[in-house]
Amino acid sequence: MPIKRNNMAPNATLPVRENYVSHSRGGTKHVPFQSIYRPDFQVVEQREGRTTMFPHTEQLPVLLRALNLEFYGALPSRLARTDHRAEDYRKVSLQNAALLYCSAFNAARPDGVRLIQLPDHQRVSKLSIVQQVTEHRRLGRSHYFRFYAGPDFFPEILLNGKRVMFSEHTLQRFSSRVPNPVGTDLSEFLLTFFGSAHTSLPVPHGRAFIMAHNESLLAFTYKETETEYFVTTCLTVNELHGLKPELPTRAHNFHYELPFTSPRVRHWLPFHEMCGLFQRFRRKTRLTENFFTPHKKVARWFDMAGWMLEEEKRGILSPGTRLEFLDGIPGPNTIQASPKEVFGAFDETEILRQMRESHDWERMFKEQHGIEVKVPDELMEKHWPLEQMAA
Fold first, then answer.
1. What is the rounded CA–CA span in Å between residue 81 and residue 83?
2. Does the residue 334 lie in any domain?
3. How far is the C-alpha of 303 from the C-alpha of 252, rounded, in Å?
4. What predicted TM-score, i.e. pTM, was given to this entire model?
5. Core vs surface per residue 295-308: b (16+ CB within 10 A) or e
């Protein structure tokens, strides 16, 4: 359910216009919490030396309880009771509802609290409060994020076994370069960056994570150390130059726990993804924005929540629908398949070995500049059972 925007018009303004991607430089930040279930409550930041956290860690259970009451209280009871025992099609319905609540109805909360839906280890979606951790370093401020969904589920999303840090410059450039409604920049950033697995490609003076954004793409340049990826800036096709295809293509997976082992068999083919992204780079399509404007009858979450089982009633989601973690790795990314569909299972090493025997890669890239490079259809049909993926 690819809904990523809130219901605000492009030129709408909030009562208080803040820079939500950073903390205040002066005194301790405190903002009135916007919830009927917790009135007269101030959301404050936490300070520990040169590190600040917003919201305060001790406030997270209070905030989450109020938000859960608002979210689950409006859902149909069959959907609100979804837990690890539910069938996958019901978990998908809950995932769609949580995504809609977090990314459309709460993308620009005036209190600065940001939400994201995350599946737990049983693939049951949870409301998660985003805690932005800011470290004040010698070269400026840097940020990473933790996600609170309860006392037993408070993960930091890792990438290939390493923490992901973002410079202040990265968040500022994303806010200014990527079209988004007023106040939704941080919500849009989190949904874009953590919403799918990444490939990385060489760029002048380093490497960058490359990801699709509508019909265009975004690039996040980074520096890698033994313990972290430090993202330095955000580039659109207007600023991105010198992007180069690479074989084999580096793939990166988000996950919750350590240790991390890169999967041999994946649901997707990194090389094929890289070809599609490189074509977008060659086309230089400008970034566009999609506005989600609900009908006036469902302009409130209480009204919209009653429609969350509509896909089940119409047969779009039916028993037999399957929901799995992407590449079999517990993390924020999932993949679903209808009863008639088959999950992709690709051993890229083996596929590239077969393709190298029948293709001159250097000549192909030189002549076509990467535009017409396609993975042959006959090699995209090779599947492995899920038991082999788990192994």
1. 6
2. yes
3. 39
4. 0.84
5. eeeeeebeebbeeb
